[in-house]
User: Fold this.
Amino acid sequence: MNYTTQRKKMVETQLIQRNIKDARVIEAMQEVPREYFIPELSRSLAYEDRPAPIGEDQTISQPYMVALMTQALKLCGRDIVLEIGTGSGYQTAILSKIAAHVYSIERIPTLAAKAKETLNTLGYTHVTVMVGDGTKGDPEHAHYDAIIVTAGSPGIPPSLKEQLADGGRLVIPVGSRGYQELHRITRNGNDFVTENLGGCIFVPLIGVEGWGKDVPM
Ligand code: SAH
Assistant:
């Protein structure tokens, strides 16, 4: 089966049949070629129903998790989005299809460089990839309509809460190193409402407001 056919099948069986309903999310997942974001060695896993290795002990999230988190952000097309954990850049590409601009922070320089290259090659222009500790957010471009964290955190980094716009949504896996629950925090003025969207497993968020201090790679 070629990649386009595999992608169609993934959207139908892994997303639509599991209640992903946001038409813009479905369209983006239908359009972005996931195979380009996966190193050649594991490329055949591109449309499997699970995460896949991308090097540096990191993974590209399962397609369903990418769709679920994107849907949870409730993007309208005009949002400024902050993403923590660029990884392969796949989630960044999906977000950029639906947002006005995506700022994305990755702590491992080689992954950030590769993601930048892939996003450029495929023509995703309204995206800025940066290297750094994303637990502190990016005050320079704040406030954000939506913030997505694609690594597991022991708690909610205070900087990320502060950088949410009024009405903004933060989606983040919170829990232990081995298991987390997906939280959506919605800001209403100085009130923050938390919803639990269910269990998940992510690689750890490593940084000053995550799992300890950033260690040089
Ligand atoms: N969304 C990615 C999944 C990446 S896995 C994709 O679609 O491919 C999580 C990523 O978070 C890893 O690349 C890891 O290096 C990165 N990460 C972990 N802690 C971080 C931090 N404090 N700041 C930025 N990136 C971080």
The beta strands are 52-55, 58-60, 80-84, 101-106, 127-131, 144-149, 164-175, 180-188, 191-200. The radius of gyration is 16 Å. The longest helix spans residues 3-15.
